[in-house]
Amino acid sequence: MVASVAMYPGYGWGWWLDDTSTLACHATWPIHETLVNASTWLIVAFTVERCVVVRFPLLKLRLCTPRNAGLCCGSLLVLAFVKNFDLFFVDALVVDSHSGGAICSVPLQYRDYINNYRPMIIFVTPCVIPTGVVIVCNWAIIRTLRRELMQTAISDSIISHTTVTCLAVSFAFIVCVVPAHVFYVTMPNWPMSIQNQHYTFGSLVLLQYANHAVNLFLYSLTGAHFRCELIALFRSCTHRWRSTSAVGCRMASATCMCLFRREFGIDLEML
């Protein structure tokens, strides 16, 4: 959403949010990078939590709690902000020699850092490490389920659904996130014009943003219980809205979500 306001109007109509004021120039890029990095690492955190639940079920009640989930989300957001804190100081409003207006640009003293060192930091922290963790955790989940549940009566359905879901999320994460980072690091070596580089990188960035919205649909397609509870949530909300008021809709949504959490907890206990 930050990118939709900060970047797309600029590429489409020439109106850039970071050119409007000094504050916008200094804050737009770091806020955007902070939210993107936090979103990526939230997927990693959820994958690690799933791995703990499957491989170490005795630790589930102690570690996988709403309080710890909130602390984890807050910590990831703070760490992402700290990682991108340097971006608050590398941009500045300068006068464009062609148009005569003020544009947000990187001064000469910071361009070597932005062009040569910053891409490697971006490649390692939001790409290489998260991808490795997601692959390893999902491999551990699938291996544990196949080893411990293959001999049980519930093995076929649980292994099938969980394996498909894990593989779908991991595959989507790798396909959507990795190409943009790889192209950003290797962009100077590609034999194409600057304009084509911008078009290509912009398309890959759109693919990266899609990763943060696709998981809901992946879980709906691969998880029968999740899909059933999601449909029940919307049906209950619609029914309440038609018969009572918007307040009743919110209460019904909260009730359905509580029911979903309880049923999902029961499924995890089965694991």
From TrEMBL:
Keywords: G-protein coupled receptor, Membrane, Receptor, Transducer, Transmembrane, Transmembrane helix. The chain crosses the membrane at residues 70-90, 120-142, 163-187, 199-221. Residues 1-219 form the G-protein coupled receptors family 1 profile domain. Pfam families: 7tm_1. It comes from the Eukaryota. One of its GO terms (cellular component) is plasma membrane. Belongs to the G-protein coupled receptor 1 family. This is G-protein coupled receptors family 1 profile domain-containing protein.
